[in-house]
Amino acid sequence: MRRNGQIAAGLLVVAVAAAGCSNSNQSQSPVSNPETHSAKMTPVSMTTNAPLDAKKSNVVPVKIGPAKFADGESAYAERNYTEAAKIFDQYTEEKPKNAWGHYMLGLSSWKAGDLAKSEKAFNEALSIDPDHFKSLLNLSRILIDQKRFDEAVTKLNHADELDPKSAEVQRLLGRIYDGQGKLDDAVMAYRNAIALDDKDSWSMNNLGFIFIGQKRYEDAVPLLTKAVELQPNVPLFRNNLGMALEHTKGFTAAAAEYKGALTADPKNAKAQQNLDRVEAVKVSHDEDAH
To answer: C-alpha angle with apex 132: 126 to 137, nearest 5 degrees?
Structure first.
């Protein structure tokens, strides 16, 4: 059970094009049935019994029954991350030796915005199972977001030893090298990720964006085109493809991509700004042609 899917996350935002760096939620999905007795994991209602204190007339909350893993998963799947964290907090108290419980507490706490608790939970999962692959990946994401790159590399090197064919490990290494300004290493890591998984749209986007920064627009276009083909509703991909096309004088195609980004996210200010600019350039270009 050490590898269940791929995690989410952190977007690399750059002033011109708001580029993101993986964190697609691919490795952040919860794991089903972490225990051999999973058939007993029926949902539990985290309700309270409410006896009245005769003196204070206050409601006294009382836990009803043990926390169930499946109930926490359901809350997570419904994006009720705060409730999921509460359930897994209780679950890990009741089953402190279950690495998957700590992993889900870490994931839920991260989504709920409690990074300190999330990091602690992932580390607890790894203290129980040092080879817990998904905890290594998602802990590295938290460390990357905090620019604790050396610590993140240590986790990812271990993950790479466990699964040398993981595109996700390579993508996260690419994020680290990019954050450190080691662009040649970042390019190599993203290329490795794409070679391992030809549908890794986030690595394609991230590599394409590096090429935009290096003014290698012709190299960026096919990567970003493929990323958009794989995930046409990700506004970030379409905005970045629009930028690459704009710099290759493909103003009409660039405008179409900016419009696609706005369709996916009508409040995307950068896509709107880029669209306004390219349409003005396109009009001027058409007038000159006449």
So the answer is: 95
* Confidence grade of residue 282 (pLDDT, cut at 50, 70, 90): low
**Which residue carries 């905090």 as its tokens?**
146
Q: Give per-residue pLDDT as tens, 225-264.
A: 999 999 999 999 999 999 999 999 999 999 999 999 999 9
Q: CA nearest 38: which of 102, 121, 100, 107?
A: 100
What pTM value is reported for the model?
0.76
Q: Mind listing the domains of the chain with CATH numbers? A: 229-290 (1.25.40.10)
Contact indicator for 187, 207 with CB cutoff of 8 Å: yes
End-to-end CA gap in the chain: 65
Q: Which residues contact 250 (CB under 8 A, 6 or more apart)?
A: none
Can you tell me the distance from the alpha carbon of 152 to that of 204, in angstroms, rounded to the nearest whole number? 22
Say if residues 261 and 235 touch (Cβ distance below 8 Å). yes
pLDDT at 47 (0 to 100): 33
How far apart (Å, rounded) are the C-alpha atoms in residues 167 and 27? 11
What integer best gives the mean pLDDT of the chain? 83
- DSSP labels, 154-177: HHHHHHHHH-TT-HHHHHHHHHHH
